[in-house]
Design goal:
The chain is α+β, with helices and mostly antiparallel strands. It is built from four helices and two strands, in the order H-H-E-E-H-H.
């Protein structure tokens, strides 16, 4: 697998909620430095500045591959159908 569990869970969380959890900011910055994640700030949040993000194109592709690799049914279907696509 290309991403470890913490990176995968963080990317899924950011893809769904578009916010970076405070306890995982260092991991988010590391993924941003690799080009997997785009980070920004939202000043319209009630508590002041809220760090936001979304996966880059590379991050979206990695998430798709990880979802296939982590699901046994999808992994088998992908291995069967991929040679024909």
């Amino acid at each position: 697998m290309l991403l470890d569990d913490a990176e995968f869970e963080l990317l899924e969380h950011i893809e769904k909620h578009h916010t970076v959890p405070k306890n995982q900011r260092s991991l988010a910055h590391r993924l941003a430095s690799l080009g997997i994640l785009h980070l920004g700030y939202d000043d319209q949040h009630a508590n002041g500045l809220q760090e936001t993000g979304h996966p880059s194109y590379l991050g979206e592709q990695l998430l798709d591959l990880e979802r296939i690799q982590r699901n046994p049914i999808r992994r088998v279907m992908h291995s069967i159908l991929m040679p024909f696509i």
